[in-house]
TrEMBL record:
Organism per entry: Vibrio splendidus
Swiss-Prot/TrEMBL keywords: DNA replication
UniProt name for this protein: Replication protein, phage-associated
Record GO terms (molecular function): DNA binding
GO BP, one annotated term: DNA replication
A Pfam match: Rep_1
InterPro entries documented for this protein: Rep
Family: Belongs to the Gram-positive plasmids replication protein type 1 family.
Length: 349
């Protein structure tokens, strides 16, 4: 988010503003062009994920009112340092496709078990699947989290039985190694789904570098970026972290982070999905107020001195300090310009 966004109402370019959320106390920019990348832009990712989190919460609440059960499922595969992340992702996509159609479809498996008890209703209502990744000593670790909505009579043991068998077969049929018996498929009850949703997408969780650090001293994608900036991580030098992030960004470009099964939104009365670009183009919070409007010349100084993130931190704590900081930024630039002019005069002499 560096460039001014077009003003569709008045024409020209929108003014650059700093606003503060009345609800969360977070400062944010408005009037800048957003890339809409959920995988490679921490700013856009935070905004997109927060909107998705709200939808997940609404889905869980709607399911509860309808008397449905929510199950929290984690699917993983064995992985190593030498694995090609793009190859892994392609095979994972194939595996999830096999689990959704054909003889291996989990929906059919559930329905067969359900009908054997004399029930005639639908066993499963649908699912929401999230793709996540971390990097640790065993390389990239792509994995899925799934919230499955079922009829109230489907318990955790049944879900574990169906998904474990389906996941193992889908992985083997897709050229992936056999999932671990202990960790390949983990199923927990709805309370874990609620906990996951409450944390998923919160801005601090998405942007702070230590988020989702793995048990094996690994990094989230944003942790890799922070390692590049800080340069003091003994396990991830700036050069290594940069290389890993570039490989990750290439592999995940175009991947779908969150997928709702067909018909689930309608079944739970959740509004039609908006794409990432639409979400990032909207105001961050309608319950927000203006702190400052930054003239374009001043914004160029913010970019020049790489103060975009620092400016928001200051804005959240003290609006007077914000104005003073912007003023000092201009003074620093004037001083730098004078020094350059002085150096040029010395060289000419």
């Amino acid at each position: 988010m560096r460039f001014r966004a077009p003003d569709s109402i008045n024409g020209g370019l929108r003014p650059i503003e700093i606003l503060k959320s009345s609800e969360h106390g977070k400062a944010f920019y408005q009037g800048l062009y957003a890339c809409g990348s959920v995988w490679t832009c921490p700013v856009c990712a935070a905004k997109i994920a927060e909107r998705r989190r709200i939808e997940l919460k609404e889905a869980l609440e709607s399911a509860k009112k309808k008397g449905l059960k929510a199950h929290f499922i984690t699917l993983t595969i064995p992985h190593g340092v030498g694995d090609d992340i793009e190859d892994l992702l392609a095979k994972l996509r194939l595996a999830t496709k096999k689990m959704s159609s054909g003889r291996n479809a989990v929906k059919s498996r559930f329905q067969s078990i359900f009908e054997s008890t004399g029930e005639s209703e639908a066993a499963t209502i649908g699912f929401i699947r999230a793709l996540e990744v971390t990097h640790g000593k065993n390389g990239y670790h792509p994995h899925y989290h799934i919230i499955l909505f079922t009829n109230d009579s489907i318990n955790t043991s049944i879900v574990q039985y169906v998904y474990s068998k389906a996941w193992k077969k889908a992985c083997l049929d897709s050229g992936l190694p056999s999932p671990s018996e202990d960790h390949g498929c983990l199923v927990k009850d709805g309370s874990y789904a609620s906990d996951y949703i409450s944390k998923w997408g919160i801005e601090d969780e998405m942007t702070k570098a230590n988020t989702k650090i793995t048990k094996l001293k690994g990094k989230s994608p944003w942790g890799l970026l922070d390692a590049v900036l800080q340069g003091n991580d003994p396990d991830y030098s700036p050069e290594r972290a940069k290389s890993l992030f570039l490989v990750y960004s290439k592999a995940f470009s175009g991947q779908r982070q969150l997928y709702w099964s067909n018909g689930l939104r309608a079944a739970l009365h959740i509004s039609k999905e908006e794409n990432d670009e639409v979400i990032v183009s909207k105001p961050d919070d309608v319950r927000s107020y203006l702190l400052a409007q930054i003239p374009f010349e001043q914004w160029k100084l913010v970019l020049k001195f790489k103060q975009e993130a620092n400016l928001l931190s200051i804005a959240e704590s003290n609006v007077v300090a914000l104005q003073l900081f912007l003023k000092n930024l201009s003074l620093s630039n004037d001083e730098e310009s004078r020094k350059l002019s002085s150096d040029e005069e010395v060289l000419r002499e």
